[in-house]
Write a structure and sequence with these properties.
414 residues; alpha/beta; Rossmann fold; 8-stranded mixed β-sheet; 14 strands; 39% helix; globular
Length: 414
Amino acid sequence: MRRLCVPTASPLTSWLCCQLGAREHYAVPRALHTGHRLGHLVTDAWVPPQSPLRVLPGDRAKRLRERYHGDLAQAPVTHLTTSLIAHEFLWSVQGKAGWQLFTARNEWFQRRAAAVIDAMSPQPDTIVCAHSYAALEIFRIAKLRRLRCVLAQIDPGERHFALVAESAAQAPEYGPPPPAPPADYLERWREECVLADRIVVNSEWSRRCLELAGVPAAKMSVVPLAYDVEGAPSEVHRYPDRFTSERPLRLLYVGQVSVAKGVKALLDAMALLADAPIELTMVGVRSAQVPQRHFDDRRIHWIGPVSRSAVMSHYRAADALVFPSLSDGFGMAQVEARAWRLPIVASRSCGQVVSDGANGLLLPEVTPDAIATAIRCLLAEPALLTAFSRNSDRSQVDGLAALGGALASLEAVL
């Protein structure tokens, strides 16, 4: 365990953030630190510029080099990097993978983070924030010390996993349903929800799904994800007067290629529009077994997973983003697209980034017909795309200041 030396915290500081991974580029601790409320960050890996780990070769070392953010250079950080490296080696030798590896990593982090909190003896007014599925042991020790607990819910919870299984079962040609989470995974999550004084979800969709799972509505707050628009262009996208085979409508999909993300409906919509002047670029890990007929469609370009900077180049080249997810805690691709002033065609089962008819189109349902209808609308009226791009006001993208303000406002209801 490594604790970094930092200046004395300000009187406003009251949050202790436990974060496994670099979710949203450390948005929560960054927002808290900017608002002088971050008392401490406990994280699994932290590799600052001076770390000798930065010179190691290989993909794992490359991923470790990404575990740092300059905004937190002066923040109080306790990290478990050495222990993580040792345990990752052990889990690899033990052959752990999938849910077994995922739960092992979560349980390891909870135990270590709980021990850090116990050793710190934080003040009674401290708020402990941890992400869902990796918070139980942290909250248990926090409650023993009479600390307040905020659960950052990363997805729509139990209902989400049911929807994933249902959608895959209805599309057998795309492969078997993904393995379901272990029973105790959701049982521990339910206990996290009970111990939490407040549960932060990123969308109304997630809030509704948690309500269906029995989580009290009064316990939840909707806080959209933050996104830094720096580096994205401010210009409105340009479109031709009409789309042709020489200048087709360029659609973009960014995310995991799976049935639950609406990929089957999207690809079937392309089949319904077989003669239309459109191209579809698919960017992301392919977890579904996509039928060969879609690979044979030369209008569909399969890119696979790419770096963050490469994803930005695809936003720049596209005419519109299609986000047809059947269930998503938020959908960061939508926010990235909006920051690039890119029109969006989206489902209603995710974060509310699209204002229907203003900066994009909301699907009434995730079906091939509904997606095809929306695409035909864009093909028929290219001027709509110009209007949508113009209305994608980057100033309305929630940034770190908005996130910090939303988190600070929770203090009054804890």
